[in-house]
Amino acid sequence: MLTESMQQALNDQLNAELYSSYLYLSMAAHFQSADLAGMAHWMELQAQEELLHVKKYYDYINDRHGRVLLGAVKGPKTEWDSPLQVFTEALEHEKLVTSLINGLVDLAGSQKDHSTHNFLQWFVAEQVEEEATVAGIVGQLKIIKDNPGALFMVDRELTKRVVAPAI
Fold this sequence. Notes:
- By secondary structure, this protein is mostly helical.
- It has one domain: Up-down Bundle (Ferritin).
- 76% of the residues lie in helices and 0% in strands.
């Protein structure tokens, strides 16, 4: 059984992951409108991946005989000035998610909730990958600055992304 505070914290994270999906879908829509199909594709897959995270929390809460409580999801930002700004904000968002997950790990540890602590370790590792991937794209966009040919190449490269099978 989950404690009431752990159940609430996991539900809060589930809802934060829903917002993440919504944010990335908004970023994808922004890129679609700018004719950057590769970046749109990358963000669409990111939105799907976030929904897989939602499902992991949903299943875990239910497996521990908790109650999933869905909250309102606030509307995400819809306009950005550049691809660099979009990916920089995506990186900042991933850092925020990392801090939220670290808070959950701390809470699980303080409650000696070893099952939840173990469950969260997948997300801890996932966040390292998430931040590194987005940071790499940010780095490339900083290098190319306003070079349209280079932007085209990065956009083309991002069309190659595929979602790894859910574990």
